[in-house]
Amino acid sequence: MPILLAAPPGRRQRGPSCLGAIMLAPPPLASAWPSPGALPERRCDGHRTPGVDRHQLRGTRTQRKARRQAKSKPLIANIFAWVDEQRSLVPPTTALGQALGYLHRQRQRLILFLDDGNIPLTNNRRERELRKLVLGRRNWLFTWKDDGGERIANILTIVSTCIAHGINPREYLVVVTEALLAGRHVAELLPDRIAISHPALCIPGFESPELPD
User: Fold this and answer.
1) DSSP-derived secondary structure letter, 131
2) Alpha carbon distances (Å) from 58 to 42, 123, 181, 208, 209
């Protein structure tokens, strides 16, 4: 299963949003709260949400969904109850008002993880993958027009997918190249499947809890 990169800026997002925004927004905006203690326990609940889901990430999709429904759903309900309450009190042009507006607009996407155990709480891993492309942007000046850019995108997608599945990218490319020359079907050589026929390609001790079961 290839990793999914975030949509470019300005393009409409259609998938789940990132709960990282909820976790990171409250502390810097604490001074903008309309009254001290306006969000006592609910704010703490929001910061505990990742911990609630992290302690049993090796469960199955059904188990993760059941755990999220039992533990995360009440916490998220508290957060949005506070958001609905504060939106009528905080001016939308303030820093806190803008954060509240973001949460209100993205609500349906932010709660998708409650009904699907395969959806991670955040898209932090995808953000880290995008950072690699940004750091190498000077190298992409020499990719030879759009065709070269597409080839590099394909190669980086293969490498990133190998890393996400705990497959050694260098060894994987050698094995796949030889297999393709021998007439093997591409579907049999995807990173999430080749580990069965070539266990030596797996990185020892690698664990990726964000991958679906």
Assistant:
1) H
2) 27, 18, 37, 9, 6
Entry pTM: 0.55
- What phi-psi label fits residue 166: left (phi over 0), alpha (psi between -120 and 50 degrees) or beta? left
pLDDT tens for 74-130 read: 999 999 999 999 999 999 999 999 999 999 999 999 999 999 988 888 888 778 878
Which residue from 125, 54, 43, 101 is spatially nearest to 76, judged by alpha carbons?
A: 43
10 CB contacts (<8 Å, ≥6 apart)?
A: none
Q: If you write DSSP's letter for every residue of 43-101 in order, what string do you get? A: HHHHHHHHHHHHTTTTS-HHHHHHHIIIIIHHHHHHHHHHHHHHHTTS-TTSHHHHHHH
> What's the mean pLDDT in 63-75?
92
pLDDT tens by residue, 13-41: 555 666 655 554 444 444 444 443 444 34
Token pair for 74 = 């009440």
What torsion do the CA atoms of 118, 120, 125, 126 make, to the nearest 10 degrees?
80
The residues that bridge with 167 in the sheet, in sequence order, are 202
Task: Decide: 176 and 204 in contact? Cβ < 8 Å.
Answer: no
